[in-house]
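> call design_seq(struct)
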């Protein structure tokens, strides 16, 4: 997060459970999915959002791993937010990766109000 902030000039806050990301825990590779999606999310924010702040939340429940990336930028065009598969390559790739892992991908956005990407992945 510190490197992202330094390179992009966007303040970034991480709020993660202490056990949110554990390597080699038998979770079916979901940690790897998160590790691939998070940099893409941050890259999209740096390129497109015109944001000054980003917050990242990572939570682990009994059977789910969730990631939320929220910015205070300009929001995503409504068509891309409603149908990520038709949006930019970044959103499409994230939605596909989450779907292939059996998870859920949600985009919440409003013009001038920022964007929140929420992913929930099963731990199997």
């Amino acid at each position: 997060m510190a490197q992202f902030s330094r390179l992009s000039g966007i303040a970034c806050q991480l709020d993660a459970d202490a056990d949110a990301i554990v390597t080699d825990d038998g979770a079916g590779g979901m940690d790897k999915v998160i590790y691939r999606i998070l940099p893409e999310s941050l890259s999209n924010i740096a390129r497109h959002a015109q944001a000054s702040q980003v917050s990242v939340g990572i939570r682990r429940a009994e059977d789910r791993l969730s990631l939320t990336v929220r910015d205070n930028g300009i929001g995503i065009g409504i068509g891309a937010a409603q149908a990520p598969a038709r949006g930019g390559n970044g959103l499409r790739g994230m939605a596909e990766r989450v779907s292939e892992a059996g998870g859920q991908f949600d985009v919440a956005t409003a013009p001038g109000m920022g964007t929140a990407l929420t992913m929930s992945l099963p731990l199997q």
